[in-house]
Amino acid sequence: MRISVHRSWLSAGAAAALAAAAAALTATAPAHAASGCQVDYSITSQWQGGFGASVHITNLGSATTSWTLGWTFGAGQTITQMWAGIPTQSGANVSVANASYNGAIPSGGSTYFGFNGAWTSSNPVPAAFTLNGTVCTGAVSTSGTPTYTSEPPTTPSMPASNLFPYKLSWNSSGILINPKSDSRHTIISVKDPSVVNYNGRWYVYMSTVDSGGNYGMAAIDFADWSQADSAPLHYLDQTAIGGGYKTAPMLFYFAPQKLWYLTYQTGSNMSYSTNPDITNPAGWSASHDFYSNGMPSLIKQNIGSGYWVDSWVICDSANCHLFSADDNGHIYNSTSSLSQFPNGFGDGGNTVIAAEMPNKYDMFEADNVYKVVNSPYDNTYVMVVEAIGSDGHRRFNAWTANGLAGQWYPLAADQSRPFLAASNVTFPSGTPAWTQDFSSGEAIRSDFDQTAGINSCHLQYLYQGMAPGSNQSYNLLPWRIGLATLSNPAC
User: Fold this and answer.
1) How do the pLDDT tens digits run along the chain, 491 residues long?
2) Burial bucket for residue 32 (CB in 10 Å: 0-12, 13-18, 19+)
3) CATH class for domain 170-486?
């Protein structure tokens, strides 16, 4: 299903019906006038003709059991889509009523809603707000970095927005894996790590880059992370996979066939090799292609000047989904039945745009998709994608959905509220931050099979970073590998 952050919200008839419902809700629900309030209105993203915003309300007065927030747009802006609130708009005047589950705000408490909107000539922040008819005389923050005292609620249409805290915090290790050279390989960079734990050992597969900017792949295994940097690299060009451009690996065990799979990009296709024994790094098969005719036609139509990168496979009980990115703001999803995998993708004719962003740098590359395994979120999926900030640094954004073919909703998906970035990572006390870039990697999965499960209560993320100030061309950047641990899980 194609999803766009600037899609139309409702038909005119549906909008009218919803406006009537909102008016009825406001008229009949018990509400207490708030004697004071504060509003944090943040424009989280903006593109030609459209924008995203988040609104955080703090009740500085008596407790309320329902609420309506009002404001006036100053330049003809309109709301096109909203979550966690029910909007009505008449000209420039906007009224947002609470949803069915977030009407109660205790004194000193807070709540949240978000929306997408449209603008023409300009997009100024509203000058004033009212809560249940009372002017919000508390400070109105428009900085884009408000301080939140509670998590935003989960909406019926937007799954598990409280799966993680509203603003995530991480602790990072130092560098865990450095490049290693041998007589055949002069390696300057290790990157794109994929990781599983099997029978008490860690298996990390990664891209390597040599001094000429040429890509390859290598593998290490070890019992404890303290041993990672001393583990010998097994270069996969010495296996049946062979040499040439093969990079960005993903490792998993396909239980129906009792085979390990390694997927990777080859430039003209997304490819894979298999191995019956993960403990034997020399046992990988020759390379095979997922698609019969190379790049699917839908990707050709939308890739622009980007690059087709970063395959990711995840399966549910019926189908396997092959995700990829294009460095042009799109994430693609191709589908094969579980029984036909890996031969069911054909020419990619069933490929769809799973998600897209108008600013390509918000949804750039390094796409990962996971199934959450911890209750009550165990029917939820999380998509993590690398982004590039306005400062040029790499970070991760995240979206969530109720199914692999469903709509993806923002979870932590903008520069002021990223999933993983320099702004929300700390390093060991007394240790300088060894990187300001958090780039292509993977979460530590709860298992090693094709379902790609994660536990949001105990989340770690293996990533590539580089020394601050590195300014080489991209293929010569000195990437290293570190591990971040979520320090404020919501459970």
Assistant:
1) 322 332 222 233 333 333 333 333 333 333 343 468 999 888 877 777 888 888 888 888 888 999 999 999 999 999 988 877 899 999 999 999 998 767 888 888 778 788 889 999 999 999 999 999 999 987 544 433 323 223 333 443 456 667 888 889 999 999 999 999 999 999 999 999 999 999 999 999 999 999 999 999 999 999 999 999 999 999 999 999 999 999 999 999 999 999 999 999 999 999 999 999 999 999 999 999 999 999 999 999 999 999 999 999 999 999 999 999 999 999 999 999 999 999 999 999 999 999 998 899 999 999 999 999 998 888 899 999 999 999 999 999 999 999 999 888 888 988 888 999 999 999 998 888 999 999 999 999 999 999 999 999 999 999 999 999 999 999 999 999 999 999 999 88
2) middle
3) mainly beta
Query: Which residues lie below 8 Å from residue 319, measured CB to CB, with a gap of 6+?
Result: 335, 336, 337, 338, 404
- Element (DSSP H or E) covering residue 19: helix 12-28
The Cα–Cα gap between 19 and 51 comes to 22
Q: Are 356 and 348 in contact (CB under 8 A)?
A: no
Distance set, CA 142 to CA 41, 68, 93, 124, 248 (Å):
5, 20, 19, 10, 40
Cα 90 to the center of its chain, rounded Å: 35
Task: Extract the tokens encoding 74.
Answer: 């100053």
Strands 110-118 and 50-59: antiparallel
CA distances from 299 to 253, 270, 340, 347 (A): 28, 13, 22, 12
Helix locations, 350-471, DSSP H: none
Alpha-carbon dihedral angle through residues 205, 446, 350, 398, given to the nearest 10 degrees:
-90
* Backbone angles phi and psi of 474, in degrees to 5: -55, -45
Q: Where are the alpha helices (DSSP H) in 222-376?
A: 297-302
| CA dihedral over 296, 403, 313, 253, signed as positive or negative | negative
CATH number of 12-135: 2.60.40.290
What's the CA dihedral at 120, 121, 127, 132 to 10 degrees?
-20
- CA dist 204 and 222 (Å) reads 9
As a whole number of Å, the end-to-end CA separation of the chain is 31
Residue ranges per structural domain of the chain: 12-135, 170-486
Q: What pTM does this model have?
A: 0.74
Give 5's contacts (C-beta < 8 A, 6+ positions apart).
45, 50, 52, 116, 356, 357, 358, 410
Quick check: 147 and 136 in contact, CB under 8 A? no
